[in-house]
Amino acid sequence: MFTGIVEEIGTVAAVQQDSNSFKLSIRCKKVLEDVKKGDSIAVNGVCLTVSDFSTHQFTADVMPETVKATTLHTLRLGNRLNLERAMAANGRFGGHFVSGHVDGTGEIIAIRQKENAIYMEIDIVSEYLNYFIPKGSVTVDGTSLTVFGVTKKGFIISLIPVTQEDSIIGRKRIGEKVNVECDILAKYMERLITTDKGKPAGSLTMDSLAASGFLD
Question: Are 141 and 83 in contact (CB under 8 A)?
Answer without folding.
Answer: no
